[in-house]
Amino acid sequence: MSKQTKFLLNEDQMPKFWYNLQADLPKPMPAVLHPGTLQPVGPDDLAPLFPMALIMQEVSQEREIEIPEPVRDVFRLWRPAPLFRAHRLEKALGTPAKIYYKYEGGSPAGSHKPNTAVPQAFYNQEAGIKRLVTETGAGQWGSSLAFAGSLYGLEVEVFQVRVSYDQKPYRRALMETYGARCVASPSHETVYGRSVLAKNPNHPGSLGIAISEAVELAVQREDTKYALGSVLNHVLLHQTIIGQEAMLQMQMANDWPDVVVGCAGGGSNLAGIAFPFIGHGLRGGQKPRIVAVEPAACPTLTRGKYAYDFGDTGHMTPLTKMYTLGSQFTPPGFHAGGLRYHGMAPLVSHCKALGLLEAVAYDQVACFEAGVLFARNEGIVPAPESNHAIKGAIEEAMRCKREGKAETILFCLSGHGHFDMTSYQKYFAGELTDEHYDETELALALASLPNVPETV
Prior knowledge:
The protein is an alpha/beta fold. It folds into 2 domains: 262 residues, Rossmann fold (3-Layer(aba) Sandwich); 143 residues, Rossmann fold, CATH 3.40.50.
């Protein structure tokens, strides 16, 4: 058995194309609908929010879309990202399984999010845009877009969910270091934010609310566009560089995953690692199980309904068919802020509906326990979001131990937790508890889903 730990690609092996899963799906995705007419939206409907290059990627059915050379030049700062064999974790677990992890925490912002932030900033600059407005939960996306904006001379404004804004001050400092402006959401800077605060001055915020605030500002100026760090097709597309690199590295290891695991909030990290493997299977190759791991306090894929819903709480976005807890649902303030979203990427949701992936949900204390075990064996302190993928991988490894199976498990370690140490402090102090959503609130949120006829 090889004891090689790192599998590294040369820069000239970095993928030159993003992979578009839509080209290989057995059934096309449901259309995105205009909320007023319930008719499919066209490029012109999205033009106030995004540059046309990104809109065309959003609707593309081509299998491969070229990564612009200037974007690849920036990617060389941290890509290709390493693949590790987790020998020490395997030994600690006493499992016959082989565990590999793709590590995305080596990017300047510390996560996988720059994989889409950089091309989004690039295309916006090419379109003559001067300012980008966005939202962020834990701050991984906000800091990544701030980094990308600094490279392309773009002004960046970030609405950060209030509970994360308070929990993670160093994320805010990182955004400001890159030159961005960070505002706690809900805020007094938008009509929608003020309406939320009028009802509850101490509202903890949610990604849905922060999206509404960002969209409201984005459409007010012609030199401004909106940028999103997850959920949309073009965002998931950009992240497939993760899985494509991992496929090359698994071949270097003379191995192939039986199970691919990713944490799931909006869907970008999961799609990044999993979509190339799903596509490979759809084209006749080996089909690994795909396991999405989400927080039990915001269990979109495991408790949500597959239905048309708004992507934001203020109902400013088009309607997409996705697994959702309802746009009015506010998750409790657990520490994996990047996973606190009421919906799931429509393309990830479509894969779940087609049976191409499965989902599980775990409480945050168990996920932190898994993250600490990982750190003490592999050395990397994971982000709270990534702890969910680690927990999922450990559960699969222990299943292999019970069943006596030497399966190969691959997961995406989507970012480091260096700005999340207050969460770990609370864990070690016994102050980190499992948060639980309000069942009544969930029922009300699901009951208020838009009425879209099944025939649409």
